[in-house]
Each structure stands twice: as structure tokens, then as C-alpha cells.
Write a structure and sequence with these properties.
Two copies of one chain form a homodimer. The first copy, chain A, is mainly alpha-helical. Chain A contains twelve helices and no strands.
Chain lengths: ~240, ~240
């Protein structure tokens, strides 16, 4: 597949399989309560914390000097060592703008489903080839429209979050095209068979599943109270068998 | 902690933290459609497939001959090499009774959130001590009431599932006390400090979180269509950023 055909296959497989996640629909439409939006911020921080680790794992497995150099410049960006706000500090700033202190953010218990999904992502990088690890980040090819919708939603619906909270999204937005170009360039150069290209698409689908699953866990935690009536649940407990 | 105090701490931490999962509430009350119950069967099969692997990981890490021998008798049971139906074959029989062929069961794509949770469980066994691995199975101390409620629900509400589908639950029910006694005995013998006992409780909580997260993913898949209106979702897609 040439570049355009590959990008079409990526779009079909990553976006075409399902609609937008209900949590994101609600976020964009301003229908999340303060507590629900804060839960999203607190839980998604675990993803933000682990993405740089995942990227370091990829670096540690890559024998190609040109890829390592490209990947190090990605790390510099995502660790906040260049112009952009880093993934961790940027999210701390968002949390602070939403009234969540750094201490509370760092000390919060993350939802199990979020932990499982994010840990699986780091583990995917550890157990797959470096090229599949790089390819997983192709999911970000579609981050731009989500970032735009999110920034818009924060401005319109969540004005109780201080404007400084948007700095991280703006910073991501400014860097996303260049960052995507790097990942796509590596994948197009090193995936030289159709099979390798298909595996690259599957890796991006995997990363999309991680995001989906994070949102599942946050959604269920936010709404499970209302998903079964209180009377029904009385005296019942979760068990395993 | 003595045995009774330990069991109380286990109950408080495993069951006391939250109510029954909405998916289990609906299953017990007969409110799952055929497709939803089948989805539970198909997806939970991934858990059934991996529990024996998790148990083998624990065995492979244990330097205590007496524990290994006890654990091997557990493996014999769960692999279906004794009186009981094995975890895998037993579940195949349940699926067959629900009109899902072995081929369809084996070939089905498991929901991402289910995969992440189950993989995290196997990974927990790989990265924790053998004793914490054993302790995780203490979550089954509370399996009996769930099994009873489940058998009752199948009989009352899901009579379209052939009665042979209940054989596995019956078989689990017959073995669960003995199996629990083995795990509890090992934990009481080898967790000789309060700290180790607390870690044992945490391990069981972890296993309970795995079950919870599996149910989250199945619930969201079953109901996400109705959680956001079709009009809202039109033309929207899940993206990552």
C-alpha cells in the first residue's frame, strides 16, 4: 500500500469499526457533571503517566539508529523538554485548573479497568516488535479532531475549569501534525510487506481499544449508580466464580 | 489475624467496597436478552481459558513442595482431569447449551476490555510472588452465593439454554468449598506477618477488580447503543489524543 491507501486502511479500521464512545459524546456535549469530568481527568492521568514509559520501552528495543534519533525527539517533546508542555506536567496543569491539586492527582486510586488497559498498552510495547510499538501511535492520526472538539467543549460547557487548563490541549494540537508525520514516516519506511503494514494497522487498532476501554471504565464508574435501581442492588455484592 | 478475623477482613475488602455489578444484577433478574447472555458466555470464556494458565504460572514460581503438590491437585481439578468438568471444557458445554458452537466460541473476537483485564490477571501472577498469586484466588471464597444465584437465574429466566449448560456450575459448586479450603490453608500458613496478610487481602481485591472490569466491558458493549442517542452519535467517531 502506498501512503494514501495505507492511511485509508488505517481510518477504516481505527474509526470505521464503531461510533464515538458514549463518554466522549457526553463530554463534548457538556453533559458531564463536575465530579464526572474530574474523574475523567484523574483517571486519564494514569494514561498520561505511562505513555512516556511506553515510548521509552520502544526506544529500548529499536536497533535502527535513525529511528532511535527520531524517537528521542518525540520523547523530548512528550517529556516537556522542548517548547511543548510534557504529557505529565501538562495534565497536572489541566487538573489544577479543574481544582484538583497535584497531590490529589498523584495520590488518587485509579479505576481498575483504566489500570488494566494502560498496563496492557505498556505490556504491548514490551512484548511486540519496536515497529509495532511505533505503529500503535498511529492512532494519533485522528487525535486532531478530538482535540478540537474537546477544546471547544471545555470553552463552551466547562467554564468552571480555568482557561490555563486548555494549555496542554493547545500544546498537543500544535505538535500533533509533526509528531504524526514522524510515526507515519517510520512505519512507511520499515513496513515493507503488506503483512507488516496490516500488522501496523492492527497495532493502531490495539491502541484505539486501550482508549475505548479506559472510557468504558470511567463511564461505568460514573453511571453505574443509575444503571441499576438502588432497591434492586440492596444487600447484593459483586462476587467471582 | 486469626482465621476468622482474616476472613472478615477479606469479606470487608472484597465485598464491602461496592455493590453487585449492574451486569450481574441484570443476569440474575433475567433481564439479559439472548444476545447479551451469549456475549457474556463468549467473552467470559477468555477468562476461563486463562485461569489454568495463571495457575500454572503460580506453580512455576513456587519453591515449596507441599504447596506445589496442593496446587497440582487444583490444576487437576480445573483442567478436568478428575471428577469435575474442567474450566475450559465446562464452559464449552455451557456455550453449546446456549447454541454457541465450539468453533464459534473459540473463534470469537473477545472485547478489548475483557482481554486487558484477563491479561492483567495472568501478568499479576507473573510479576507477583507465588503467595500473592495463591491469595488472589481467595476471591472465590465468595463464589458460592454467586453460583447459586446464577444457577437459579438460568433455571428461572433462561430456559432456552439447555439444562446441560448448568453442569459446569454444578460441578464448580461441588468443588468450591474444598478448593477454597486449600487456598485459605496455604495463605494462613505462609502469610506469617500482618503485612503479608494485608497483601493477601489486596491480591483478592485485585482478582475481584478483574471480574468487575470484565463485566464493565461486556455491559458497555451490550448497552452502549442505548446510552447515547443514535442522532447524537451520527457521523462521530472514537479517536485518541
Amino acid at each position: 500500500m502506498g501512503r494514501e491507501e495505507f492511511l485509508r486502511a488505517l481510518r477504516t479500521n481505527v474509526l470505521g469499526r464503531r461510533k464515538m464512545h458514549p463518554l466522549m459524546v457526553l463530554l463534548h456535549e457538556g453533559e458531564l457533571s463536575r465530579e464526572q469530568l474530574k474523574s475523567w481527568i484523574v483517571n486519564r492521568f494514569y494514561f498520561q503517566e505511562n505513555v512516556p514509559v511506553k515510548d521509552a520501552v520502544i526506544l529500548s528495543k529499536c536497533p535502527e539508529p535513525d529511528v532511535r534519533r527520531l524517537w528521542i525527539s518525540r520523547l523530548l517533546r512528550r517529556e516537556g523538554m522542548q517548547r511543548e508542555l510534557g504529557d505529565v506536567e501538562g495534565w497536572v496543569e489541566l487538573a489544577t485548573a479543574a481544582g484538583i491539586s497535584r497531590e490529589r492527582l498523584m495520590g488518587s486510586r485509579v479505576l481498575p479497568g483504566v489500570r488494566f488497559a494502560v498496563d496492557s498498552y505498556v505490556n504491548f510495547a514490551r512484548t511486540s516488535s519496536w515497529l509495532e510499538g511505533v505503529a500503535a501511535s498511529l492512532v494519533e492520526q485522528f487525535a486532531k479532531e478530538e482535540l478540537l472538539a474537546r477544546i471547544d467543549a471545555f470553552k463552551r460547557h466547562y467554564s468552571w475549569v480555568a482557561p490555563s487548563g486548555l494549555k496542554f490541549f493547545m500544546s498537543r494540537l500544535a505538535a500533533v501534525d509533526e509528531s504524526n508525520e514522524v510515526a507515519l514516516g517510520i512505519v512507511m519506511k520499515y513496513c515493507i510487506t503488506r503483512k507488516a503494514q496490516n500488522r501496523a494497522v492492527s497495532s493502531a487498532v490495539f491502541a484505539s481499544d486501550v482508549n475505548w476501554s479506559i472510557n468504558d471504565a470511567i463511564y461505568m464508574d460514573a453511571f453505574s449508580q443509575s444503571l441499576a435501581s438502588p432497591e434492586r442492588e440492596k444487600g447484593r455484592h459483586q462476587t467471582a466464580s
